[in-house]
Amino acid sequence: MNKELTIIGGGLAGCEAAWQAAQQGIMVSLYEMRPLKSTGAHISAGLAELVCSNSLGSERVDRASGLLLQELISLNSVLVKCALETKIPAGRALAVDRQKFSDRVTEIIENHPHIKVFRQEITSIPNQPCIIASGPLTSSALSAAIAQFTEKSNLFFYDAVAPIVQKETINFKIAFLSSRYQKESDDYINCPLTKEEYEQFVRELLSAERIPLREFESQINQGVTTGKDRFFEGCLPIEVLAKRGQDTLAFGPLRPTGLHDPHSGKRPYAVVQLRQDNIAASLYNMVGFQTNLTYPEQKRVFRLIPGLENADFARYGQMHRNTFLFAPEILKPTLQAVNRADLFFAGQLIGIEGYLGNIASGLLAGINAARYLNGEETITLPQGCMLGSLIYYITHAKPEDFQPMKANYGLLIDKEESQKVPKQLRNQKFYENSMEVIREVSKQLGDNH
């Protein structure tokens, strides 16, 4: 068999898949349309650019992202290695300098002897072994080709990114450095709000002008149906959250738990947290502040937050259309297309949310594409590990329940058994079982992996 593989998309999933397949001796052609054609959300030509947050999630193994992180380390993920190399302080979360992370991934991929990168838009599905990892901002032409192939319309939802603030413009006479429950850690900048300040902020947020959803964001041409005003629950715009109730933000992204204001000596009513965004610690992103407010309104409303009254924004928040497929009818648990064995899909396009989840799906697709080309049996990961349970969900969910999913312990929980065991002990057991499963998978993959 010709051991050549085409991969469409130079994001997290595509780059991980390319490296995994190349490590198995496969000659990989990786296609990325940027910078020749922009997505409207990306700002660089770098591979594996992080468009939204710069955090890959918690490193704690009692959290689902921390468990998935350990699985990926054990499975030799190159992008996780790059993330650890470009890590910046973020409490117990794995956050990276997004530019250095992208630069490092680009360097590794472009210099791999078995990978050739092409800056070119692909508008149809190749008639050869292929992984499609074109992401949620897949071009209209390729989206239409995928819809025609699957005989199913794409589903959409809207996603949003948060603003980034220049640190030197933050007022530290009001703001303070601290991490939740960690008095010795100063990884986050915290802007405290009194009850009156919080209520004023919510009022102004709800009345602020939003950017109209553009026509091309509401639909894809050539017969793909729309999912107008469909938001992903895991990344709701802050103004959409605020509409759910006066205290929704105070119990959500602005919750003050684990924080103490050293200036007042009191626990704030609400807190806006900012997380470091680059190694120089000159830029901080507003945690949980995905938004579709107009740029002038963002400046006006977000400057009502104590400590940000003179803030300069290095980047304003924005919304964009994210496209995903109905994976349960399209994919096998090996990430192969049901009706075409040499075609694989990976990444956010298949309904996986979260940076680590997308990296993980690319890893599995790359491994299985290489095994297919090498004449080996493709692998289905057991549900006993986080990645296996995540892949099982996206390939078995019911139509009425399906929406993009990120790693969470709910995918592993046996509801009857979980009620009998304290959460901390239950999650520790999940971790131990999962890592045992991953060790067996690593043995199956062999030394070359």
Chart the SSEs and their pairings:
Blueprint: E1 4-8, H1 12-23, E2 27-32, E3 55-58, H2 64-74, H3 78-85, E4 87-88, E5 93-96, H4 98-110, E6 115-119, E7 130-132, H5 140-150, E8 155-161, E9 164-166, E10 176-177, E11 188-193, H6 195-207, H7 215-218, H8 238-242, E12 270-276, E13 283-286, H9 295-302, E14 313-315, E15 318-324, H10 327-330, E16 336-337, E17 340-345, H11 355-373, H12 386-396, H13 415-418, H14 423-445
Parallel strand pairs: 1-2, 1-7, 2-6, 7-17
Antiparallel strand pairs: 3-5, 4-5, 8-15, 9-13, 9-14, 10-11, 11-12, 12-13, 16-17
Helix pairs in contact: 1-11, 2-11, 2-14
Can you describe what's shown?
- By secondary structure, this protein is an alpha+beta fold.
- The protein has 2 domains: 4-152 and 325-445, FAD/NAD(P)-binding domain (3-Layer(bba) Sandwich); 160-318, Elongation Factor Tu (Ef-tu), domain 3 (Beta Barrel).
- It has helices at 12-23, 64-74, 78-85, 98-110, 140-150, 195-207, 215-218, 238-242, 295-302, 327-330, 355-373, 386-396, 415-418, 423-445; strands at 4-8, 27-32, 55-58, 87-88, 93-96, 115-119, 130-132, 155-161, 164-166, 176-177, 188-193, 270-276, 283-286, 313-315, 318-324, 336-337, 340-345.
- Helix 1 (12-23) runs parallel beside helix 11 (355-373), helix 2 (64-74) runs parallel beside helix 11 (355-373) and helix 2 runs parallel beside helix 14.
- The longest helix has 23 residues, at 423-445.
- The protein is globular.
